[in-house]
Each structure stands twice: as C-alpha cells, then as structure tokens.
C-alpha cells in the first residue's frame, strides 16, 4: 500500500515538472520577436526630369526669349529690301530674325527681312517692291507686310490674300522717307527709300489694326531644339555654303567662335551699315524649287509650296542635312515645314536667326 502511494507521489511530481517545463517553453516562444514578413525588392523610382520652361517672351521666329512684353502674342513684320549691288550696304537688316533671299527679274535677288518684335523695329533701307511669292511665305507667319511699290500684274492676287500691307508708294502711315545721306552720297533714288520702323507700333495701334496673332499662328516658325541645345544636323560636315542665283551669289561661312554662318554677297562681306556688323545666322536653309520667267519684263514664277520631292538642305553648327520642304498646297497661310528625307519626320533646328534661300535646283555647293 505504501508502495502504491509512493509511486503515485512520484507520478504527481513528474506531472508537475512537465507542466512547468511546458509553460516555460510557451513563455519563451511568446518572448521571441516575430520574424518580419518578406517583402518584394522595390526598384528605386525613376525621377522625371522637370519639363523645360519655355520663356513667356519667346520669339516665335528664333526660339529665343528676347521679345519685349508688348510683343508677346503679337504679329511679326516682313519688310522687302533691295539687294542689288548698287543698293549696298543696307541697314536694319542685321536685326532681322529671318531673311528670305529669292531671285527676281534678271536673276538678281531681293530680301524679305522678318522681325518678331513689332514694337522694336529698326529703320530699314533700302525698301523695295513686292513680288507675289514673298507674301506667299510671309502669310504663313501672319505678318504685316511692308514694301515700296508692287508688280501691277499681281494686284488682284495681293488683294485676295487680304494682306495687312504698308506701301511706300503712298507713304502708308507716314512710315516712309528718302535717306538724304544716301542721296548726297550719289545713290540712285530707288535705292534710298527707308521704312521708319521705330514709329511702326504707334501707327499700327492708332489705326486700330489687328496686332494679335490668330489662334492658329501662335506656334513657333520652326520645331526648335532645347533651350540649351546646339546640335549638329544629321549628315556631313559643312563649313561653307555657296549659292549661285544667276546674277548674284551668296556665300555663308561657318564661324566656330559664334556658331553662326557669316554671309557674303558677290564675294564680299554683307554688312549692315548702321550696326557695322556682318550678317550672321545660326541656321541656313537652301530650298530648291522650280523657277521660270512668266512675262517679257522677266517677272518670275516660283513654286512656293514645295512637296515631298522638293529638295532642300539644312545647315547649322558645322553640318548639313538633306531635307525636303513644303507648305500646304495653294495655302499661303500654312507654315513652312522641313522634313528628313529618310525618316520623313519633321526636323528640329537650333534656336537663333535663320537665312532661307529659295533657288533653282543644283545651284548650291556645301563644303
């Protein structure tokens, strides 16, 4: 009996010991820190570059932030300028943002100088008459058009274009005069007409003319590269452009220090006599097109709207790229656009002043 009692006591002790050990083990398990849940490896988020802030005073002709406050969203000005040897040197042309050079009768050339800021126009001399293909280009910028006389055979065409035109023949707006210094120096009268640009904005506003760009003309003249980019066109090196218009030549030579092309006319530097500077351009465009004589006087027909087969060249930053160019067919108000010949995509160009030669096919060299 004692034995059984003793055995029972031993079993009871063992049971208590096991119970204490189990409680201790559970306590230890609860004290252990929980293992962190497995998480997937996260890749660091890619930070997006902030969008480039285009200045509010961006000049739509150059892409540069140099407009006066009063010119933002306002129309540019196109001025016809005499470019024959006897009219040189001109003045006011070095300040132009875009210059077109196109043959007229006799295969001499004429300028259309374009200014993005109508409130900061210079005096320009020598102003010359209109040929129909110049406003065919200027209308694409919604520009005021300034000239001294017209080819009478195109008066109906100009009226149909509904040009906002200022003509020195009737001294429109009192904005024209004869440069007495040039008369005294022996210039022929036709080479002495000037446009009094500094008065232009006041005259336009006093006449109540529309100065705001139309909604569909608030885009830039070109597709521009970034504000801090100065890129070389896709193609080959080009330090010199030689253009033969027939009775006049233009040579543009690259200046690496300024990254511009300096212009010569007929082998001599083309200078602005007021600023005493040589004409210089960040971008040079040579646009080949069909040009023919249309009357006994020698007035030209010029194919101004281009096509996918219209050969052109874009030159900038020491390089040249072959392109094609066009405007919408029979729509003078359309933009002039430039495309890569291989990809057919619209090209981007560097910000700055541009020179645009419209000329006969095969009359240019790029070296």
Quick overview of this protein structure:
This protein is an alpha+beta fold and 367 residues long. It has a single domain, classed as YerB-like fold, CATH 3.50.90.10.
Task: Give structural attributes.
alpha+beta; 5 helices; six-stranded antiparallel β-sheet; YerB-like fold; eleven-stranded mixed β-sheet
Layout of helices and strands:
Layout: H1 2-31, E1 77-82, E2 98-103, E3 109-115, E4 123-125, H2 133-138, E5 144-147, H3 155-161, E6 165-167, E7 176-178, H4 180-184, E8 193-196, H5 200-206, E9 236-237, E10 240-244, E11 249-255, E12 260-265, E13 268-269, E14 271-272, E15 277-278, E16 280-281, E17 283-288, E18 291-293, E19 300-302, E20 306-316, E21 319-326, E22 337-340, E23 354-359, E24 364-366
Parallel strand pairs: 1-5, 2-23, 5-6, 17-23
Antiparallel strand pairs: 1-3, 2-3, 4-8, 7-8, 9-21, 10-11, 10-24, 11-12, 12-13, 12-16, 14-15, 17-20, 18-19, 20-21, 21-22
């Amino acid at each position: 009996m004692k034995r059984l009692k003793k055995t029972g006591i031993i079993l009871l002790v063992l049971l208590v010991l096991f119970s204490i050990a189990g409680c201790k083990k559970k306590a230890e398990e609860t004290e252990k820190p929980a293992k962190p849940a497995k998480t997937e490896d996260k890749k660091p988020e890619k930070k997006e570059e902030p969008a480039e802030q285009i200045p509010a005073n961006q000049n739509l002709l150059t892409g540069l932030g140099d407009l006066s406050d009063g010119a933002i969203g306002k129309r540019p000005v196109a001025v016809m300028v005499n470019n024959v040897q006897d009219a040189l040197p001109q003045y006011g042309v070095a300040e132009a943002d875009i210059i077109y050079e196109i043959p007229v009768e006799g295969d001499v050339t004429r300028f259309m100088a374009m200014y993005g800021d109508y409130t900061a126009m210079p005096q320009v001399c020598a102003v010359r008459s209109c040929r129909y293909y110049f406003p065919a280009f200027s209308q694409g910028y919604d520009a005021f058009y300034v000239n001294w006389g017209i080819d009478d055979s195109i008066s109906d065409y100009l009226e149909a274009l509904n040009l906002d035109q200022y003509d020195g023949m009737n001294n429109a707006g009192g904005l024209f005069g004869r440069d007495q210094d040039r008369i005294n120096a022996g210039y022929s009268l036709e080479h002495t007409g000037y446009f009094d640009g500094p008065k232009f904005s006041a005259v336009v506003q006093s006449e109540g003319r529309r100065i705001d760009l139309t909604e569909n003309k608030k885009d830039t003249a070109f597709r521009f590269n970034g504000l801090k980019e100065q890129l070389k066109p896709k193609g080959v090196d080009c330090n010199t452009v030689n253009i033969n218009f027939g009775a006049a030549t233009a040579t543009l030579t690259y200046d690496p220090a300024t990254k511009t092309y300096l212009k010569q006319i007929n082998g001599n530097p083309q200078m602005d006599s007021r600023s005493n500077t040589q004409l210089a351009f960040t971008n040079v465009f040579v646009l080949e097109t069909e040009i023919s004589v249309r009357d006994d006087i020698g007035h030209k027909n010029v194919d101004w709207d281009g096509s996918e087969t219209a050969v052109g060249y874009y030159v900038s930053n020491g390089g040249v790229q072959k392109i094609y160019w066009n405007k919408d067919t029979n729509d003078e108000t359309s933009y002039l656009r430039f495309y890569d010949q291989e990809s057919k995509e619209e090209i981007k160009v560097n910000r700055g002043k541009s020179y645009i030669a419209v000329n006969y096919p095969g009359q240019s060299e790029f070296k």
